[in-house]
Amino acid sequence: MKRRFHQLDVFSAVPLKGNPLAVVHDAQGLGDDTLAAFARWTNLSETTFLLPPTDPAADYRVRIFTPGGELPFAGHPTLGSCHAWLAAGGVPREEGGVVQECGVGLVHIRRGGTRLAFAAPPLRRTGPLDEPLVQRIATALGVAREDVLQHQWVDNGPGWCAVMLRSAAQVLAVQPDWKRLGELKLGLIGAQPPGQDTQFEVRAFVPAMGVPEDPVTGSLNAGLAQWLTGAGLAPPAYVAAQGAALGRAGRVHVQREGDAVWIGGDVAGCIEGTVTL
Q: What pLDDT, in 10s, does the model give residues 186-213?
């Protein structure tokens, strides 16, 4: 059966500079094995499948797969899936906003011009990392323990933990030991020097999910933003860069409004057509 298909670049207004996403529309009737097999075939960090919602408050439902398995939530698939749903003629129930149903529940998305932004879901796990884990991470990253300035669980579904290094330059210089990282889903962040167009550099490592390094990561940036803005380690509005280590130029726009944290980014279309599944 032929189904509508989009491939998009998320967190970039320019194709080929963000994080690619494959989106299959009208995925009703496809079994879990087929969804997982197609995600392995695309070999992108995530592939999503759009379905009718089961919650009457939602506009659509999405299932999110990496080459290694299904995720309850992820950021760039949220923005990209919403863009694809709207491009295919989706009409939200409420003007100015879209409600997505996924594994973590309902995620609210708002539109401002050409940019979409999602409300960061509640963190499932917070608090500092255990010291033995911090030591393991420092060793895996090839940095000294004292170079880890801050650390925190920032898990909103995928299982993220995060460390702040001394600088953006140190973040970009890291060459991780994948074996030592093992099953960890690890985010790095470091402050940019003054005069840059972004405030932080971010990297994301998820080798256990078949994605050694993710180009631009909405869920990680959401958790980082909740942590950093809440702790006074970042201003309530900032832009993070991600993907430079992979030749990308992703930009993640963060805005804290009271207790809500919004994670925004541009989406560029790359491929549109049909796929036979």
A: 999 999 999 999 999 999 999 988 789 9
